[in-house]
Amino acid sequence: MSKIKYVIVLFISLLFVVACDKDEEPQPEPKDPILIDETPFVLKYGALPTPDLPADNQLTVQGVQLGRMLFYESMLSKDGTQACAGCHRQEDGFSDFSRFSLGVELLPGNRQAMPIFNMAWHSNDFFWDGRENLLRDQALKPIQDPLEMNETLDNVIAKLSDSEMYQDQFSRTFGSAEVTSEKMALAMEQFMLSIVSFNSKYDKFLAGETELSESEERGRLLFEAEYNPFFPDFSGADCAHCHGGSNFENDQYMNNGLDTDDTMTDIGREAVTQDVNDKGKFKVPSLRNIAVTAPYMHDGRFQTLEEVIDHYNEGIQESSTADPTVLNTKDTGLFLTAQDKEDLINFLKTLTDSTFLNEATYMTPF
């Protein structure tokens, strides 16, 4: 064989060997599809009444987990710096210690961030003015608000769709990796419904597991006793009219005498209903964990519980829509002494639920 023919044969042989080696290279195995997991989420709520959960969005372990991920996800904001949890901190009862939260453009909001817990027991819509009927609808609004996260839903969907982690979790939750705003809303609703506070000192007192101190008990009696202008010595703080029941609220919108008609700058519920009788009315919040959710009122005007009690004791302002129960005390106040105020605050502190404030399943999953 000539030298040239030998080289050609050798070259062809090498090509054959290389080709065979390529054919024998192990190919990556296709990824198994992520299957939907519909394991129900077991909601714990202690002695609270059985909640009326949405029939079309039953809580599942994977749905709550996806909602938790989204709640702590900064990709929901325009510049990737802000998540829902930024203005709803667990250690502050899922509220904000700032009077007005700053959004991604460093612009302040118009109202104080409401606490997020026991949402399953709210039957009168959401936001201070009740402008959203369902919790799932409320969940998407801060994303799009220019004063808050200032992002579009389309952009959020695009960002989440590029994440294999979110594709997998949407698949586990909904059986499809497709990210939609409707799925986001349902998942976030599930997580927020899972945030429950039911293990305060007061709850343990009701269960016979602990006793209230003398001051706390006096505060409890003042809290529950009605205002009595004819017998001041027996008059109470009259709190339970508005903050009653197991969740310490009444599912109403009320004007609690913060401003006169002339000084009122936020018309509250009226902007939603277009009814002048709703002027200055706002959602009555729960008093659970009230000691850790300062500042107070829809505009965060009061920094301390002492200021709140002073308002009801001596600062009621008359307006056309002020609640009669509140307005009745305007001329005399509630007759609260310094000791009464101290006792009342000590009772309110028994509504703090340290278990809820430190619950690991409410914390960031990242």
- Give the neighbour order of strands across the main sheet: 1-2
Q: What is the structural class?
A: mainly alpha
- What is the third-level CATH name, the topology of the largest domain? Cytochrome Bc1 Complex, Chain D, domain 2
Please tell me how large the radius of gyration is: 28 Å
Task: Please bin the fraction of helical residues.
Answer: 25-40%
Low-confidence blocks of residues: 6-12, 14-22
Number of strands: 2
Order of helices and strands: HHHHHHHHHEHEHHHH
Describe the sheet with the most strands. Answer: 2 strands, antiparallel
Distance between the termini: 69 Å
> How many individual helices?
14
The average pLDDT is: 93
CATH class value of the largest domain: Mainly Alpha
- Taken together, the total number of domains comes to 2
CATH architecture title of the largest domain: Orthogonal Bundle
* Percent in strands: under 5%
CATH level-four homologous superfamily name of the largest domain: Cytochrome c-like domain
Query: What gross morphology would you assign?
Result: globular
